[in-house]
TrEMBL record:
Residues 14-190 form the CT398-like coiled coil hairpin domain. This is C4-type zinc ribbon domain-containing protein. Residues 202-236 form the C4-type zinc ribbon domain. It comes from the Bacteria. Pfam families: CT398_CC (PF24481), Zn_ribbon_9 (PF02591).
Length: 244
């Protein structure tokens, strides 16, 4: 393949731009904010789960308190009714039964009030857990927002840099012969560096030192002959820096 030395040298500009685009793509994938964001999202999920668990437990206790209050009110109402019946003058047998029922109601009310007090103490203690869970969740959500903002800023910076390099690439491509560009792109499509500068016996694409016999053939090749690195098969561009 033939290509003017100026076109081959221009290919180095394209390779440099493409290398920068590759580095930017790697930086995008390797942003530390990605891992930070995943960890922050997990903390938010854990915080929400803990808060829901605490709220569910609090709701259960609140229902127990309401039920106990209702039962206590029922016992008190029954007690007042029985006392009113006793005060109204009734037969001895009925009075004895009512007195026995009042004693039973008193024990029942005492037990219910003890149970209510225990549940209320549990609810009070759980209030601290609710407050703590709420604070933990709020902190996790704040951290998530901060990490998201840092991630978005980093991505915006990368977007701007990539847009600039893409414009640079678009300006270089028209300067290159179609056949030379096609060979270059073919190598890049295979995940390789498309072109590199020959300098100090090393290929600028793979950075390996080249064999003297091969370098002799490169030196003997015409200036417009397109040569390829014997190690990585990249287009090997010769300039005044190549030392041939």
């Amino acid at each position: 393949m033939k290509a003017a030395p100026t076109a081959q040298k221009r290919l180095l500009d394209l390779a440099q731009v493409d290398a920068e685009l590759t580095r930017l793509a790697h930086r995008r994938r390797a942003l530390p904010e990605h891992a930070e964001l995943t960890a922050a999202e997990e903390r938010v999920r854990a915080g929400k789960d803990a808060l829901v668990e605490a709220e569910t437990a609090a709701g259960d206790l609140d229902r127990d308190i309401t039920r106990l209050e209702r039962d206590i009110d029922g016992v008190r109402a029954r007690t007042e009714r029985d006392r009113a019946l006793l005060a109204g003058g009734i037969g001895a047998k009925q009075a004895q039964d009512l007195q026995h029922e009042l004693e039973t109601l008193a024990r029942r009310q005492s037990n219910l009030e003890d149970e209510q007090l225990e549940v209320m103490e549990q609810r009070e203690a759980l209030g601290g857990n609710l407050d703590h869970a709420g604070r933990v969740l709020a902190e996790a959500e704040g951290e998530l927002a901060a990490v998201t903002e840092r991630r978005d800023t980093a991505i915006a910076d990368l977007d701007a840099a990539e847009a600039g390099r893409t414009r640079d690439r678009a300006a270089i491509v028209p300067d290159l012969p179609e056949d030379l560009l096609a060979v270059y792109e073919q190598r890049r499509a295979g995940g390789r560096v498309g072109a590199g500068l020959l300098r100090e016996r090393r290929c600028g694409a793979c950075r390996l030192e080249l064999d003297r016999t091969f370098l002799g053939r490169v030196k003997a090749a015409a200036a417009d002959e397109v040569v390829f690195c014997e190690e990585c098969d990249a287009i090997l561009v010769r300039t005044g820096e190549s030392g041939l």
